[in-house]
Amino acid sequence: MAAPTAPHTSASSGPSPHGELDFDRAPMVLTWEISQACALQCVHCRAEARPHRHPDELTTDEARAVIDRVADFEPRPPYLVFSGGDPLERPDLEELAAYAVSLGVQTAVTPASSPLLTRERLERLRDAGVVRIALSLDGATAEAHDGFRGEPGSFATIMQAATHAQELGLAVQVNSTVTRNTAGDFPRMAELVEEMGVVMWEVFFLVPVGRGAVLEALGPDETEGFLEWLAETQERVPFRIITVEAPHYRRIAHRRARARGDRGARVGSTGDGKGFVFVSHTGEIYPSGFMSLSGGNVRQDDLVEVYRDAPLFRELRDPDGFRGKCGVCEYRSICGGSRARAWAVTGHHLESDPFCAYVPRQYQRMVEAGEALPPEDYFRARRGRRLPVLPN
Length: 392
Ligand code: SF4
What we know:
Elements: E1 29-33, H1 60-72, E2 79-83, H2 93-102, E3 107-109, H3 119-128, E4 132-136, H4 142-149, H5 154-167, E5 171-178, H6 186-196, E6 200-205, H7 220-234, E7 240-244, H8 248-259, E8 276-279, E9 285-286, H9 303-309, H10 311-316, H11 324-328, H12 339-346, H13 361-368, H14 375-381
Parallel strand pairs: 1-2, 1-8, 2-3, 3-4, 4-5, 5-6, 6-7
Antiparallel strand pairs: 8-9
Helix pairs in contact: 2-3, 7-8
The structure holds iron/sulfur cluster (SF4).
The site of iron/sulfur cluster has 15 residues, from helix 8 and helix 11.
């Protein structure tokens, strides 16, 4: 989740543009849905969280074995994010975090705004060596946030947790989801996020999976306008903004940076299976939390080998293999489109991202030569079995 430069067209992901990381060898971030259990029932939950822990959840011993392999990634282990559900539902969370830290793995936690999110629990996480917590905020007021999530009191819990975390020396990140309902509140949310003194604002763009399938996403042109606003906001706020499942933000941020005479923008560089890997509560190794295509399972497969060599992961790191617009786009190496959305909407993970409004120069020439369908016809023809929300 960090910084690319200019577009290039290599077939392999190769070294990341922000240092020594080679995304063919190691992810930058590993998010681990350590439990699907959650006391809340948020309307847009990707995980379709449930009140109780799944009986087949990874045990403490299995979880420690996963951490051993996380630490084995070279040249350095990824940032390990304990997620859920609500990771606080695991009584061994602090033990696992401390074990990871002892092996040199940096850790963060994304707790739910449940009654478990207390100052005492945050203190225990801090003492275990956790360096950051990420809190979900989907509105600038209690009315907007609690209304969207369907959880009264959630906004107050989040605000209090942010204060406690900062008092305890934990860095705070805010995660927010863009939908047609929440988009209009983002300017006020940007002000609130700045007042909260966070280090990062991670903005999630809807992928129609889990309970989120019932929500309405922005269309391609609206998404383009929203991303322009986000890039403009980044130019004046002190915290970093990155997007999840909207890598075309990088196209916009880089264009703006070059127009200013800068070489590039710090806007993130990972994609599904490319610098990022997700482990489910039962050990499935997914390229994204929004794409339940598995490359293996930690119970019988080796995490490092799956990330590096599973055909699914290798395909996702080869932008020349993408289809439609994304496959010929001059931005395919720094963007490549949301693979999870392509999968959720069309049924195939290598298809084009239907929520990107950009028409690459080469694709335009192909349309003019009669070698490709205009984008709207292309996506209409791929209206997938999963799809209630293909843009018009
Ligand atoms: S066409 Fe695909 S690769 Fe190009 S900017 Fe849009 S989403 Fe990214």
